[in-house]
Amino acid sequence: MDSPHFNLATHPVKDTIKLLTMLLEKITHENDQLYSKKKQYTCFHARSIPSITIYAYFTRILKYCPCANECLIAILVYFDRMTQSDPELGLKPLHVDSYNVHRLIITGLMISSKLYSDVFFTNTRYAKVGGLPVTELNSLELEFLRLNNYNLFVDIDVLQSYGDDLLDLWNQTQDLDSLLVREVARSEEANGGIEQSFNQLSMKDCNSNDSSTPNTPTAPAALADDHMDKQWRYSSRSNYGLNHHSANGSINIHNPLPSRSCVVKMIFQKLFILLFVSVIQCQLLLPSSAASNSPDSDPFVALTPIIETVTNLAELLETLLRSFDKYHRELAQDEAGLTIAPKVYMYKNMSREYQEAVFYAKMCAASNCKASYDKWDCGEYCESTVPDGVVIRSFATHPLGVHGYILRSETEKKLYVMLRTDSSIRNKIVSLQRQLVPHPRIPGANVQTGLLSSMINIRDIVYRTIRDQLKLHPEYHVRVAGHSYGAGIGSLLTVDLAQRLPQLNHTNLAGYLLGKPRVGDKAYAKYIAEKNITIKRYVEGADDLTHTPSVADGFAHEGDEYWLSSNATQQLVVCPGPYETKNCSSSLGYGEAIDHYTFWTQ
Protein backbone atom coordinates (compact mmCIF):
# COMPACT_ATOMS: atom_id res chain seq x y z
CA MET A 1 0.00 0.00 0.00
CA ASP A 2 1.37 3.41 -0.95
CA SER A 3 2.26 5.75 1.88
CA PRO A 4 -0.20 8.66 2.32
CA HIS A 5 0.63 12.02 0.82
CA PHE A 6 0.15 15.12 2.95
CA ASN A 7 -0.68 18.05 0.66
CA LEU A 8 0.93 21.08 2.27
CA ALA A 9 -1.03 23.45 0.08
CA THR A 10 -4.55 22.07 0.28
CA HIS A 11 -4.79 20.00 3.47
CA PRO A 12 -7.34 21.73 5.76
CA VAL A 13 -5.58 23.49 8.62
CA LYS A 14 -8.31 22.46 11.05
CA ASP A 15 -7.48 18.82 10.25
CA THR A 16 -3.75 19.44 10.56
CA ILE A 17 -4.13 20.56 14.17
CA LYS A 18 -5.94 17.28 14.88
CA LEU A 19 -2.90 15.40 13.58
CA LEU A 20 -0.58 17.53 15.69
CA THR A 21 -2.78 17.07 18.74
CA MET A 22 -2.67 13.31 18.34
CA LEU A 23 1.13 13.28 18.10
CA LEU A 24 1.82 15.77 20.89
CA GLU A 25 -0.64 14.00 23.21
CA LYS A 26 1.33 10.79 22.76
CA ILE A 27 4.71 12.50 23.21
CA THR A 28 3.71 14.40 26.33
CA HIS A 29 2.06 11.35 27.87
CA GLU A 30 5.18 9.22 27.39
CA ASN A 31 7.59 11.94 28.53
CA ASP A 32 5.50 12.64 31.62
CA GLN A 33 6.09 9.03 32.67
CA LEU A 34 9.72 8.75 31.56
CA TYR A 35 11.00 11.94 33.16
CA SER A 36 8.64 12.32 36.11
CA LYS A 37 11.42 11.73 38.64
CA LYS A 38 14.25 13.56 36.83
CA LYS A 39 12.39 16.50 35.40
CA GLN A 40 14.49 19.18 33.72
CA TYR A 41 13.06 22.62 34.37
CA THR A 42 13.41 25.33 31.73
CA CYS A 43 11.83 28.70 31.13
CA PHE A 44 9.20 26.90 29.03
CA HIS A 45 7.90 24.95 32.03
CA ALA A 46 4.80 26.10 33.88
CA ARG A 47 4.34 25.48 37.60
CA SER A 48 1.26 23.43 36.90
CA ILE A 49 -0.27 21.82 33.84
CA PRO A 50 -2.49 24.40 32.07
CA SER A 51 -6.19 23.55 32.15
CA ILE A 52 -6.70 24.18 28.42
CA THR A 53 -6.14 21.12 26.23
CA ILE A 54 -3.67 21.00 23.36
CA TYR A 55 -6.44 20.78 20.78
CA ALA A 56 -8.34 23.71 22.28
CA TYR A 57 -5.11 25.70 22.47
CA PHE A 58 -4.35 25.09 18.79
CA THR A 59 -7.92 26.02 17.89
CA ARG A 60 -7.69 29.24 19.87
CA ILE A 61 -4.39 30.26 18.27
CA LEU A 62 -5.63 29.58 14.73
CA LYS A 63 -8.82 31.52 15.36
CA TYR A 64 -7.05 34.70 16.40
CA CYS A 65 -3.67 34.23 14.65
CA PRO A 66 -4.31 32.09 11.54
CA CYS A 67 -1.38 30.47 9.78
CA ALA A 68 -0.68 27.94 7.02
CA ASN A 69 0.24 24.24 7.15
CA GLU A 70 3.92 25.07 6.66
CA CYS A 71 3.96 26.93 9.98
CA LEU A 72 2.30 24.05 11.82
CA ILE A 73 4.51 21.31 10.40
CA ALA A 74 7.63 23.43 10.91
CA ILE A 75 7.20 23.45 14.70
CA LEU A 76 7.62 19.65 14.70
CA VAL A 77 10.97 20.10 12.97
CA TYR A 78 11.94 22.73 15.54
CA PHE A 79 10.88 20.47 18.42
CA ASP A 80 13.02 17.65 17.00
CA ARG A 81 16.03 19.95 16.75
CA MET A 82 15.52 21.07 20.34
CA THR A 83 15.52 17.48 21.61
CA GLN A 84 19.05 16.96 20.28
CA SER A 85 22.02 17.90 22.45
CA ASP A 86 25.00 19.87 21.23
CA PRO A 87 27.86 19.93 23.80
CA GLU A 88 29.93 22.34 21.70
CA LEU A 89 27.18 24.94 21.89
CA GLY A 90 26.17 24.02 25.40
CA LEU A 91 22.70 22.89 24.32
CA LYS A 92 20.96 20.21 26.38
CA PRO A 93 18.09 18.14 24.96
CA LEU A 94 14.62 19.47 25.74
CA HIS A 95 11.85 16.99 26.53
CA VAL A 96 8.34 18.03 25.48
CA ASP A 97 5.90 17.28 28.30
CA SER A 98 2.57 18.49 29.63
CA TYR A 99 4.23 21.32 31.55
CA ASN A 100 5.97 23.00 28.60
CA VAL A 101 4.06 21.94 25.47
CA HIS A 102 1.67 24.92 25.46
CA ARG A 103 4.40 27.51 25.69
CA LEU A 104 6.46 25.68 23.10
CA ILE A 105 3.45 25.69 20.75
CA ILE A 106 2.69 29.41 21.03
CA THR A 107 6.38 30.36 20.73
CA GLY A 108 7.01 27.98 17.83
CA LEU A 109 3.95 29.11 15.85
CA MET A 110 4.82 32.75 16.39
CA ILE A 111 8.34 32.21 15.06
CA SER A 112 7.35 29.98 12.13
CA SER A 113 4.66 32.48 11.08
CA LYS A 114 7.27 35.21 10.91
CA LEU A 115 9.39 33.01 8.67
CA TYR A 116 6.74 31.51 6.37
CA SER A 117 4.09 34.26 6.28
CA ASP A 118 4.61 37.81 5.08
CA VAL A 119 1.49 38.84 6.96
CA PHE A 120 1.82 38.03 10.65
CA PHE A 121 0.84 39.45 14.01
CA THR A 122 2.88 41.16 16.68
CA ASN A 123 4.23 39.51 19.79
CA THR A 124 1.64 41.48 21.76
CA ARG A 125 -1.21 39.72 19.99
CA TYR A 126 0.38 36.28 20.31
CA ALA A 127 0.90 36.94 24.02
CA LYS A 128 -2.77 37.81 24.50
CA VAL A 129 -3.85 34.74 22.56
CA GLY A 130 -1.47 32.47 24.45
CA GLY A 131 -2.18 33.87 27.92
CA LEU A 132 1.37 35.13 28.50
CA PRO A 133 2.86 38.51 29.38
CA VAL A 134 4.49 39.91 26.26
CA THR A 135 7.80 40.40 28.07
CA GLU A 136 7.89 36.73 28.94
CA LEU A 137 6.96 35.67 25.40
CA ASN A 138 9.83 37.82 24.12
CA SER A 139 12.20 35.90 26.41
CA LEU A 140 10.77 32.57 25.26
CA GLU A 141 11.31 33.60 21.66
CA LEU A 142 15.00 34.24 22.28
CA GLU A 143 15.42 30.94 24.12
CA PHE A 144 13.57 29.07 21.36
CA LEU A 145 15.94 30.56 18.78
CA ARG A 146 18.97 29.63 20.88
CA LEU A 147 17.84 26.02 21.29
CA ASN A 148 17.46 25.81 17.51
CA ASN A 149 20.92 27.30 17.06
CA TYR A 150 19.21 30.17 15.20
CA ASN A 151 18.57 27.84 12.29
CA LEU A 152 14.88 28.13 11.36
CA PHE A 153 14.90 27.31 7.66
CA VAL A 154 13.23 24.02 6.76
CA ASP A 155 13.46 22.68 3.22
CA ILE A 156 10.14 21.95 1.54
CA ASP A 157 11.15 18.29 1.12
CA VAL A 158 11.66 18.01 4.88
CA LEU A 159 8.27 19.61 5.55
CA GLN A 160 6.70 17.18 3.09
CA SER A 161 8.38 14.22 4.79
CA TYR A 162 7.15 15.29 8.22
CA GLY A 163 3.64 15.84 6.86
CA ASP A 164 3.57 12.39 5.24
CA ASP A 165 4.84 10.71 8.42
CA LEU A 166 2.28 12.55 10.50
CA LEU A 167 -0.56 11.49 8.22
CA ASP A 168 0.73 7.92 8.19
CA LEU A 169 0.79 7.86 11.99
CA TRP A 170 -2.76 9.18 12.03
CA ASN A 171 -3.93 6.36 9.76
CA GLN A 172 -2.21 3.75 11.93
CA THR A 173 -3.71 4.99 15.18
CA GLN A 174 -6.82 3.07 16.21
CA ASP A 175 -8.21 5.17 19.03
CA LEU A 176 -8.37 8.51 17.25
CA ASP A 177 -12.13 8.80 17.26
CA SER A 178 -12.36 8.53 21.01
CA LEU A 179 -9.36 10.84 21.39
CA LEU A 180 -10.88 13.59 19.26
CA VAL A 181 -14.29 13.25 20.86
CA ARG A 182 -12.64 13.63 24.22
CA GLU A 183 -10.55 16.59 23.04
CA VAL A 184 -13.48 18.44 21.50
CA ALA A 185 -15.66 17.82 24.51
CA ARG A 186 -13.00 19.09 26.87
CA SER A 187 -12.22 22.11 24.72
CA GLU A 188 -15.87 23.18 24.44
CA GLU A 189 -17.07 22.35 27.94
CA ALA A 190 -18.67 25.15 29.90
CA ASN A 191 -20.50 27.91 28.09
CA GLY A 192 -18.21 29.63 25.65
CA GLY A 193 -15.61 27.01 24.75
CA ILE A 194 -12.42 28.64 23.55
CA GLU A 195 -14.05 32.07 23.86
CA GLN A 196 -13.81 32.09 27.65
CA SER A 197 -10.75 33.05 29.67
CA PHE A 198 -8.37 30.37 30.88
CA ASN A 199 -5.68 30.16 33.52
CA GLN A 200 -2.44 31.93 32.78
CA LEU A 201 0.02 29.61 31.08
CA SER A 202 3.09 31.45 32.07
CA MET A 203 3.71 31.30 35.68
CA LYS A 204 7.10 33.13 35.38
CA ASP A 205 10.48 31.60 34.70
CA CYS A 206 11.13 28.60 36.96
CA ASN A 207 14.56 30.00 37.73
CA SER A 208 13.04 33.23 38.96
CA ASN A 209 12.66 33.97 42.65
CA ASP A 210 9.33 35.67 42.01
CA SER A 211 6.58 33.55 43.49
CA SER A 212 3.76 36.01 42.99
CA THR A 213 0.41 34.90 41.66
CA PRO A 214 0.19 35.14 37.90
CA ASN A 215 -1.87 37.91 36.39
CA THR A 216 -5.28 37.27 34.89
CA PRO A 217 -5.05 37.05 31.10
CA THR A 218 -6.57 39.60 28.84
CA ALA A 219 -10.13 38.74 27.84
CA PRO A 220 -10.24 36.99 24.48
CA ALA A 221 -13.01 39.29 23.28
CA ALA A 222 -10.46 42.04 22.91
CA LEU A 223 -8.65 39.98 20.32
CA ALA A 224 -11.45 40.39 17.81
CA ASP A 225 -11.03 44.15 17.77
CA ASP A 226 -10.34 45.40 14.26
CA HIS A 227 -7.88 47.90 15.68
CA MET A 228 -5.61 45.17 17.04
CA ASP A 229 -2.00 46.07 16.47
CA LYS A 230 -0.80 44.29 13.32
CA GLN A 231 2.70 43.96 12.00
CA TRP A 232 1.90 45.60 8.68
CA ARG A 233 0.18 48.63 10.30
CA TYR A 234 -2.48 48.64 7.63
CA SER A 235 -5.39 51.04 7.42
CA SER A 236 -8.80 50.06 8.76
CA ARG A 237 -10.53 50.12 5.38
CA SER A 238 -12.37 46.85 4.96
CA ASN A 239 -14.10 47.10 1.59
CA TYR A 240 -13.17 48.66 -1.70
CA GLY A 241 -16.53 48.92 -3.39
CA LEU A 242 -17.02 45.30 -4.36
CA ASN A 243 -20.77 45.60 -3.97
CA HIS A 244 -21.02 48.97 -5.69
CA HIS A 245 -21.65 49.32 -9.39
CA SER A 246 -21.87 52.36 -11.58
CA ALA A 247 -25.03 53.19 -13.46
CA ASN A 248 -23.80 51.44 -16.59
CA GLY A 249 -22.90 48.27 -14.71
CA SER A 250 -19.12 48.76 -14.68
CA ILE A 251 -16.98 46.95 -12.12
CA ASN A 252 -15.52 49.33 -9.57
CA ILE A 253 -11.89 48.52 -8.90
CA HIS A 254 -11.92 51.05 -6.03
CA ASN A 255 -14.57 53.21 -4.58
CA PRO A 256 -15.25 55.25 -7.74
CA LEU A 257 -13.78 58.72 -7.86
CA PRO A 258 -15.97 61.68 -8.84
CA SER A 259 -15.36 63.64 -12.00
CA ARG A 260 -12.92 66.54 -12.03
CA SER A 261 -15.72 69.13 -11.82
CA CYS A 262 -17.12 67.39 -8.74
CA VAL A 263 -13.67 67.38 -7.17
CA VAL A 264 -13.33 71.14 -7.70
CA LYS A 265 -16.78 71.69 -6.24
CA MET A 266 -15.99 69.62 -3.14
CA ILE A 267 -12.69 71.43 -2.59
CA PHE A 268 -14.33 74.85 -2.71
CA GLN A 269 -17.06 73.65 -0.38
CA LYS A 270 -14.44 72.56 2.12
CA LEU A 271 -12.65 75.88 1.80
CA PHE A 272 -15.90 77.72 2.45
CA ILE A 273 -16.61 75.58 5.52
CA LEU A 274 -13.06 76.20 6.74
CA LEU A 275 -13.54 79.95 6.35
CA PHE A 276 -16.92 79.87 8.11
CA VAL A 277 -15.57 77.86 11.06
CA SER A 278 -12.58 80.18 11.31
CA VAL A 279 -14.87 83.19 11.48
CA ILE A 280 -16.89 81.63 14.30
CA GLN A 281 -13.77 80.67 16.22
CA CYS A 282 -12.22 84.10 15.87
CA GLN A 283 -15.49 85.71 16.92
CA LEU A 284 -15.42 83.65 20.10
CA LEU A 285 -11.81 84.58 20.75
CA LEU A 286 -12.29 88.30 20.27
CA PRO A 287 -12.28 90.45 23.42
CA SER A 288 -15.62 91.84 24.52
CA SER A 289 -14.52 95.34 23.62
CA ALA A 290 -13.87 94.32 20.05
CA ALA A 291 -17.31 92.74 19.82
CA SER A 292 -19.09 95.88 20.99
CA ASN A 293 -21.24 98.06 18.76
CA SER A 294 -18.74 100.89 18.80
CA PRO A 295 -18.22 102.26 15.28
CA ASP A 296 -14.51 102.50 16.02
CA SER A 297 -14.14 98.75 16.55
CA ASP A 298 -14.22 96.38 13.61
CA PRO A 299 -14.30 92.72 14.84
CA PHE A 300 -13.54 91.39 11.37
CA VAL A 301 -10.15 93.08 11.33
CA ALA A 302 -8.88 90.08 13.29
CA LEU A 303 -10.15 87.77 10.53
CA THR A 304 -8.17 89.45 7.78
CA PRO A 305 -5.17 87.03 7.91
CA ILE A 306 -7.48 84.01 7.72
CA ILE A 307 -9.48 85.44 4.83
CA GLU A 308 -6.25 86.19 2.96
CA THR A 309 -4.98 82.63 3.60
CA VAL A 310 -8.13 81.00 2.27
CA THR A 311 -8.12 83.34 -0.74
CA ASN A 312 -4.53 82.40 -1.49
CA LEU A 313 -5.41 78.70 -1.25
CA ALA A 314 -8.25 79.16 -3.71
CA GLU A 315 -5.96 80.99 -6.14
CA LEU A 316 -3.33 78.25 -5.77
CA LEU A 317 -5.94 75.59 -6.51
CA GLU A 318 -7.06 77.41 -9.63
CA THR A 319 -3.44 77.69 -10.80
CA LEU A 320 -2.87 73.97 -10.22
CA LEU A 321 -5.98 73.04 -12.20
CA ARG A 322 -4.86 75.22 -15.10
CA SER A 323 -1.43 73.55 -14.92
CA PHE A 324 -3.03 70.10 -15.03
CA ASP A 325 -5.08 71.03 -18.09
CA LYS A 326 -1.95 72.32 -19.80
CA TYR A 327 -0.08 69.12 -18.89
CA HIS A 328 -2.91 67.02 -20.28
CA ARG A 329 -2.80 68.89 -23.58
CA GLU A 330 0.97 68.39 -23.76
CA LEU A 331 0.55 64.65 -23.19
CA ALA A 332 -1.98 64.49 -25.99
CA GLN A 333 0.43 66.32 -28.30
CA ASP A 334 3.25 63.90 -27.41
CA GLU A 335 1.08 60.89 -28.26
CA ALA A 336 0.09 62.39 -31.61
CA GLY A 337 3.38 61.03 -32.96
CA LEU A 338 2.50 57.39 -32.22
CA THR A 339 2.36 55.02 -35.17
CA ILE A 340 -0.80 53.53 -36.64
CA ALA A 341 -1.49 49.88 -35.92
CA PRO A 342 -1.14 47.71 -39.05
CA LYS A 343 -4.20 45.74 -37.96
CA VAL A 344 -6.94 46.24 -35.37
CA TYR A 345 -9.30 43.56 -34.06
CA MET A 346 -12.86 44.04 -32.75
CA TYR A 347 -14.62 41.74 -30.27
CA LYS A 348 -18.24 41.79 -29.10
CA ASN A 349 -19.29 41.35 -25.49
CA MET A 350 -20.03 37.63 -25.91
CA SER A 351 -16.59 36.82 -27.26
CA ARG A 352 -13.99 34.90 -25.26
CA GLU A 353 -11.66 37.93 -25.29
CA TYR A 354 -14.33 40.20 -23.83
CA GLN A 355 -15.34 37.70 -21.14
CA GLU A 356 -11.68 37.25 -20.22
CA ALA A 357 -11.45 41.01 -19.69
CA VAL A 358 -14.50 40.92 -17.41
CA PHE A 359 -12.99 37.99 -15.49
CA TYR A 360 -9.73 39.78 -14.68
CA ALA A 361 -11.55 43.01 -13.86
CA LYS A 362 -13.44 41.06 -11.20
CA MET A 363 -10.24 39.39 -10.02
CA CYS A 364 -8.55 42.76 -9.56
CA ALA A 365 -11.62 44.06 -7.73
CA ALA A 366 -11.43 41.03 -5.44
CA SER A 367 -7.74 41.67 -4.76
CA ASN A 368 -8.67 45.11 -3.38
CA CYS A 369 -11.58 43.97 -1.26
CA LYS A 370 -9.88 44.03 2.13
CA ALA A 371 -6.58 44.43 3.95
CA SER A 372 -6.10 40.74 4.71
CA TYR A 373 -5.46 38.12 2.01
CA ASP A 374 -5.38 34.89 3.97
CA LYS A 375 -8.81 33.76 2.72
CA TRP A 376 -10.59 33.85 -0.63
CA ASP A 377 -13.93 34.98 0.81
CA CYS A 378 -14.66 38.46 -0.52
CA GLY A 379 -18.15 37.62 -1.75
CA GLU A 380 -19.56 38.04 -5.24
CA TYR A 381 -16.36 38.46 -7.22
CA CYS A 382 -14.56 35.60 -5.47
CA GLU A 383 -17.48 33.23 -5.98
CA SER A 384 -18.08 34.19 -9.62
CA THR A 385 -14.44 33.97 -10.72
CA VAL A 386 -12.55 31.24 -8.85
CA PRO A 387 -15.01 29.58 -6.45
CA ASP A 388 -12.47 26.94 -5.40
CA GLY A 389 -9.66 29.47 -4.90
CA VAL A 390 -7.21 28.81 -2.07
CA VAL A 391 -4.75 31.47 -0.89
CA ILE A 392 -1.40 29.72 -0.61
CA ARG A 393 0.75 32.79 0.04
CA SER A 394 0.09 36.39 0.94
CA PHE A 395 2.52 39.24 1.36
CA ALA A 396 2.66 42.76 2.71
CA THR A 397 6.27 43.79 2.39
CA HIS A 398 8.37 46.28 4.30
CA PRO A 399 9.40 49.03 3.74
CA LEU A 400 7.62 49.59 0.40
CA GLY A 401 4.32 48.06 1.48
CA VAL A 402 3.57 45.99 -1.64
CA HIS A 403 0.42 43.95 -0.99
CA GLY A 404 -0.88 40.88 -2.75
CA TYR A 405 -1.34 37.14 -2.65
CA ILE A 406 -0.96 33.96 -4.66
CA LEU A 407 -4.11 31.97 -5.33
CA ARG A 408 -4.44 28.40 -6.55
CA SER A 409 -7.40 26.86 -8.39
CA GLU A 410 -7.50 23.09 -8.82
CA THR A 411 -10.45 23.33 -11.23
CA GLU A 412 -8.73 25.83 -13.52
CA LYS A 413 -5.28 24.35 -12.82
CA LYS A 414 -3.87 27.85 -12.48
CA LEU A 415 -1.82 29.91 -10.06
CA TYR A 416 -2.90 33.55 -9.83
CA VAL A 417 -0.45 36.19 -8.61
CA MET A 418 -2.67 39.10 -7.59
CA LEU A 419 -1.08 42.50 -6.98
CA ARG A 420 -2.97 45.22 -5.23
CA THR A 421 -3.11 48.80 -6.43
CA ASP A 422 -1.42 51.56 -4.41
CA SER A 423 -3.05 51.37 -1.00
CA SER A 424 -0.88 53.63 1.13
CA ILE A 425 1.03 56.87 1.06
CA ARG A 426 4.25 54.85 0.72
CA ASN A 427 2.92 53.22 -2.46
CA LYS A 428 1.97 56.58 -3.93
CA ILE A 429 5.38 58.06 -3.16
CA VAL A 430 7.12 55.07 -4.77
CA SER A 431 4.87 55.17 -7.84
CA LEU A 432 5.80 58.83 -8.38
CA GLN A 433 9.50 57.90 -8.68
CA ARG A 434 9.44 57.75 -12.47
CA GLN A 435 13.05 58.17 -13.51
CA LEU A 436 14.22 55.67 -16.07
CA VAL A 437 16.93 53.37 -14.75
CA PRO A 438 18.62 50.36 -16.41
CA HIS A 439 16.80 47.06 -16.02
CA PRO A 440 19.17 44.70 -14.11
CA ARG A 441 18.48 41.70 -16.39
CA ILE A 442 17.73 43.29 -19.78
CA PRO A 443 20.76 44.99 -21.38
CA GLY A 444 19.89 48.33 -22.94
CA ALA A 445 16.36 48.47 -21.48
CA ASN A 446 15.24 51.08 -18.96
CA VAL A 447 12.28 51.01 -16.57
CA GLN A 448 10.67 53.14 -13.86
CA THR A 449 12.79 53.20 -10.72
CA GLY A 450 9.81 53.17 -8.34
CA LEU A 451 8.08 50.19 -9.94
CA LEU A 452 11.37 48.32 -10.25
CA SER A 453 12.06 48.80 -6.53
CA SER A 454 8.59 47.50 -5.68
CA MET A 455 9.02 44.45 -7.91
CA ILE A 456 12.40 43.61 -6.37
CA ASN A 457 10.71 43.88 -2.96
CA ILE A 458 8.46 40.87 -3.74
CA ARG A 459 10.22 38.98 -6.52
CA ASP A 460 11.84 36.31 -4.32
CA ILE A 461 8.61 35.70 -2.39
CA VAL A 462 6.67 35.12 -5.60
CA TYR A 463 9.48 33.19 -7.30
CA ARG A 464 9.93 30.68 -4.48
CA THR A 465 6.20 30.12 -4.08
CA ILE A 466 5.58 29.61 -7.80
CA ARG A 467 8.66 27.37 -8.09
CA ASP A 468 7.52 25.13 -5.23
CA GLN A 469 3.95 24.99 -6.53
CA LEU A 470 5.10 24.01 -10.02
CA LYS A 471 7.10 21.16 -8.48
CA LEU A 472 3.88 19.86 -7.01
CA HIS A 473 1.69 20.82 -9.99
CA PRO A 474 3.86 21.02 -13.14
CA GLU A 475 0.79 21.17 -15.39
CA TYR A 476 -0.51 24.41 -13.83
CA HIS A 477 -0.49 27.78 -15.64
CA VAL A 478 0.59 31.05 -14.03
CA ARG A 479 -1.37 34.30 -14.36
CA VAL A 480 -0.13 37.64 -13.04
CA ALA A 481 -2.84 40.27 -12.61
CA GLY A 482 -3.06 43.74 -11.13
CA HIS A 483 -4.57 47.18 -11.45
CA SER A 484 -2.83 50.57 -11.66
CA TYR A 485 0.30 50.48 -9.46
CA GLY A 486 -0.13 46.71 -9.13
CA ALA A 487 -0.32 46.40 -12.94
CA GLY A 488 2.98 48.22 -13.33
CA ILE A 489 4.65 45.85 -10.89
CA GLY A 490 2.90 42.95 -12.63
CA SER A 491 4.57 43.72 -15.95
CA LEU A 492 8.04 43.56 -14.40
CA LEU A 493 7.13 40.50 -12.33
CA THR A 494 5.87 38.58 -15.38
CA VAL A 495 9.19 39.21 -17.11
CA ASP A 496 11.09 38.18 -13.97
CA LEU A 497 9.23 34.86 -13.71
CA ALA A 498 9.83 34.15 -17.40
CA GLN A 499 13.55 34.76 -16.90
CA ARG A 500 13.99 32.73 -13.71
CA LEU A 501 11.72 29.73 -14.32
CA PRO A 502 12.64 27.97 -17.58
CA GLN A 503 9.44 25.88 -17.52
CA LEU A 504 7.37 29.04 -18.00
CA ASN A 505 6.77 30.41 -21.50
CA HIS A 506 4.04 32.02 -23.59
CA THR A 507 1.91 28.86 -23.33
CA ASN A 508 1.57 28.86 -19.55
CA LEU A 509 2.52 32.37 -18.36
CA ALA A 510 0.74 35.66 -19.01
CA GLY A 511 0.21 39.08 -17.45
CA TYR A 512 -3.29 40.60 -17.31
CA LEU A 513 -2.80 44.23 -16.40
CA LEU A 514 -5.60 46.81 -15.95
CA GLY A 515 -5.06 50.57 -16.02
CA LYS A 516 -1.30 50.13 -16.23
CA PRO A 517 1.02 53.17 -16.37
CA ARG A 518 3.95 53.11 -18.75
CA VAL A 519 6.67 50.97 -17.17
CA GLY A 520 9.71 51.18 -19.42
CA ASP A 521 11.10 52.39 -22.72
CA LYS A 522 10.90 50.92 -26.23
CA ALA A 523 13.85 48.61 -25.57
CA TYR A 524 11.88 47.03 -22.70
CA ALA A 525 8.82 46.62 -24.91
CA LYS A 526 10.97 45.16 -27.70
CA TYR A 527 12.50 42.59 -25.32
CA ILE A 528 9.05 41.39 -24.27
CA ALA A 529 8.05 40.97 -27.91
CA GLU A 530 11.25 39.16 -28.85
CA LYS A 531 10.98 36.74 -25.91
CA ASN A 532 7.31 36.14 -26.74
CA ILE A 533 6.19 37.06 -23.21
CA THR A 534 2.43 37.52 -23.10
CA ILE A 535 1.36 40.91 -21.72
CA LYS A 536 -2.28 41.92 -22.08
CA ARG A 537 -2.87 45.58 -21.25
CA TYR A 538 -6.49 46.55 -20.55
CA VAL A 539 -7.66 50.15 -20.81
CA GLU A 540 -11.11 51.54 -19.98
CA GLY A 541 -12.22 54.49 -22.11
CA ALA A 542 -9.96 57.51 -21.70
CA ASP A 543 -8.19 56.25 -18.56
CA ASP A 544 -5.83 59.09 -17.63
CA LEU A 545 -3.20 57.07 -15.75
CA THR A 546 -2.40 54.90 -18.77
CA HIS A 547 -1.04 58.04 -20.48
CA THR A 548 1.65 58.53 -17.82
CA PRO A 549 4.62 58.88 -17.70
CA SER A 550 4.94 60.87 -20.91
CA VAL A 551 6.10 59.47 -24.23
CA ALA A 552 8.31 62.56 -24.48
CA ASP A 553 10.27 61.31 -21.44
CA GLY A 554 11.21 58.10 -23.25
CA PHE A 555 8.42 55.81 -21.99
CA ALA A 556 6.45 53.36 -24.10
CA HIS A 557 3.75 50.79 -23.39
CA GLU A 558 4.56 47.11 -23.95
CA GLY A 559 2.32 44.23 -25.00
CA ASP A 560 -1.07 44.20 -26.72
CA GLU A 561 -3.70 46.79 -25.82
CA TYR A 562 -7.26 45.67 -25.10
CA TRP A 563 -9.38 48.82 -25.12
CA LEU A 564 -13.00 49.17 -24.08
CA SER A 565 -13.86 52.20 -26.16
CA SER A 566 -17.38 52.60 -24.76
CA ASN A 567 -19.50 50.91 -22.13
CA ALA A 568 -22.52 51.68 -24.29
CA THR A 569 -21.32 49.66 -27.29
CA GLN A 570 -19.50 47.06 -25.17
CA GLN A 571 -16.97 46.57 -27.92
CA LEU A 572 -13.41 45.48 -27.24
CA VAL A 573 -10.77 46.91 -29.57
CA VAL A 574 -7.40 45.13 -29.68
CA CYS A 575 -4.28 46.90 -30.96
CA PRO A 576 -1.39 44.39 -31.14
CA GLY A 577 2.10 45.33 -29.91
CA PRO A 578 4.99 45.38 -29.53
CA TYR A 579 4.48 49.14 -29.07
CA GLU A 580 1.41 51.24 -28.36
CA THR A 581 -0.36 52.83 -31.31
CA LYS A 582 -2.77 55.70 -31.85
CA ASN A 583 -5.68 53.47 -32.88
CA CYS A 584 -6.85 52.54 -29.37
CA SER A 585 -7.02 54.61 -26.17
CA SER A 586 -4.45 57.12 -27.42
CA SER A 587 -6.99 58.22 -30.03
CA LEU A 588 -8.99 59.92 -27.25
CA GLY A 589 -6.08 61.73 -25.65
CA TYR A 590 -5.95 62.38 -21.94
CA GLY A 591 -9.24 61.53 -20.24
CA GLU A 592 -11.07 61.52 -16.92
CA ALA A 593 -9.97 59.96 -13.65
CA ILE A 594 -13.25 58.08 -13.36
CA ASP A 595 -12.26 55.79 -16.25
CA HIS A 596 -9.35 54.52 -14.19
CA TYR A 597 -11.61 53.10 -11.49
CA THR A 598 -14.37 51.34 -13.43
CA PHE A 599 -13.64 48.45 -15.74
CA TRP A 600 -15.89 46.46 -18.04
CA THR A 601 -19.60 45.89 -17.92
CA GLN A 602 -20.85 42.59 -16.52
TrEMBL record:
Domain Fungal lipase-type span(s) in chain numbering: 417-550
MF (Gene Ontology): cyclin-dependent protein serine/threonine kinase regulator activity; protein kinase binding
Comp. bias regions, Low complexity: 208-223
Highest taxon listed in the record's lineage: Eukaryota
InterPro entries found in the cross-reference section: AB_hydrolase_fold, Cyclin_PHO80-like, Fungal_lipase-type
CDD domains in the record: CYCLIN_ScPCL7-like (cd20558), Lipase_3 (cd00519)
Listed Gene3D superfamilies: alpha/beta hydrolase (3.40.50.1820), Cyclin-like (1.10.472.10)
GO term, biological process aspect, one: lipid metabolic process
Stretches that traverse the bilayer: none
Gene Ontology cellular-component annotations: cyclin-dependent protein kinase holoenzyme complex; nucleus
Disordered, as annotated region: 205-224
Entry-linked PANTHER family: PHO85 CYCLIN-6-RELATED, PTHR15615
Protein name in UniProt: Fungal lipase-type domain-containing protein
Gene: PARPA_05309.1 scaffold 16736
